[in-house]
Amino acid sequence: MIIGIPKEIKNNEFRVSTTPAGVHALAANHTVLVEKSAGVGSAITDEEYVKAGAQIIDNPDDLWAKADLIIKVKEPIAAEYHRMRKGQVLFTYLHLAASRECTDALIKSGITAIAYETVTSGGGLPLLAPMSEVAGRMSIQVGAAALEKPNGGRGVLLGGVPGVAPGKVVILGGGSVGVSAAAMAIGLRADVTLLDINLKRLVEIDEMFHGQVKTIASSAYAIEQYCTQADLVIGGVLIPGAAAPKLVSDALVSKMKPGSVLVDVAIDQGGCFEGSKPTTHADPTFKVHNSLYYCVANMPGAVPATSTAALSNATLKYSLALANKGWEQALVDVPGFEPGLNVHEGKVKYAAVAAAHGL
Fold first, then answer.
1. Fold match, 2-119+304-357 / 129-301
2. Could you give the angle at which helices 176-187 and 199-208 cross, rounded to 10 degrees?
């Protein structure tokens, strides 16, 4: 099989889908094409890929035209739509419930599209988890920076100092994003409250952090109560493959502290704040009432040296299965892989995506 690793061209996306270690494993039995400079943003040189067994391709059109399997990081953008074709397999993050445009492009192309974020394992999402962990940790980092007065925030130091109360961090969702955000916020000595509807999960989180995180059963009432007190709100709620629920209304934001910051980590799935809209690392924030929103859709792309390695570690066994067995047999043989199929030959194959777009 011919496998293509293209360079990511989404705004400020510096990750690459596969490390030299991954290329080495794939190249043992297959031809691996890597687009020129694909790994530069992640501090990986073309020479390293060649040493691992890859061929370097200058032109992305040539790479897509030759490859049977395309392994990417982010969903194709408009400049890439014409490269997709029937009979080709695409393996990447798709987040189609939040993008009718990309969904329509995949349908029109006839490509077989398998999404990282809907692959399952033991009730979890093994290919979403590593990037959720990165984004969760980053959410506190970027939120703390946005809280600084020169950046438009309230001017609060999350950790406080002796004699001064720490900043209040409210985290919505107790999954990988929420737990990772809580770990970072606790490390900064912030006052941390986490809300989730799953009481069993709240017990686990309470034990995990030895009571350092306040755990609250989520409800509309509780969300309003705690968000209005918060300096920083992290949105980390996920329904696999589906649009994120809108938990924080514009009306609620109007009651929040002036200069408070909201970081919407769920923006890839449409966002869990009513006022959210995707932003980029080049222009990450905007105001809603007197609060600052951070809604970068590819947060882990800012730390590619870490993110690329974490992503490639998680996806490699699935990439190998696709290459060695073909997509149909791989989905059958690898537990939890089948839900990854989102689109095939013009048909939507994932129910939550179909529901999001009325298809």
1. yes
2. 30
Residue 234 CB-density burial (10 A; 0-12 exposed, 13-18 middle, 19+ buried): buried
- Residue bearing the bigger pLDDT, 239 or 153: 153
Active site residues: 95, 268
Q: Which CATH class is domain 129-301?
A: alpha beta
Question: What CATH number has the domain spanning 2-119+304-357?
Answer: 3.40.50.720
Please tell me whether residue 259 adopts helix, strand or coil conformation.
coil
Q: Average pLDDT, stretch 101-129? A: 95
Q: Please list, in sequence order, all residues whose beta carbon lies within 8 angstroms of the beta carbon of residue 170, skipping any fewer than 6 positions away.
A: 193, 194, 195, 226, 227, 229, 230, 232, 233, 234
Write the CA distances from 314 to 1, 151, 241, 307, 320, integer angstroms: 21, 35, 18, 11, 12
- The answer to whether 231 touches 185, Cβ cutoff 8 Å, is no
**Cα torsion at 116, 121, 125, 126 (round to 10°)?**
-70
Q: Which pTM value belongs to this model?
A: 0.86
Do 245 and 237 touch, CB atoms closer than 8 A? Answer: yes
Residue 109 near residue 84 (C-beta atoms within 8 A): yes
The ranges assigned to domains in the chain are 2-119+304-357, 129-301
CA distance 108 to 120: 27
The answer to whether the beta carbons of residues 141 and 165 sit under 8 Å apart is no
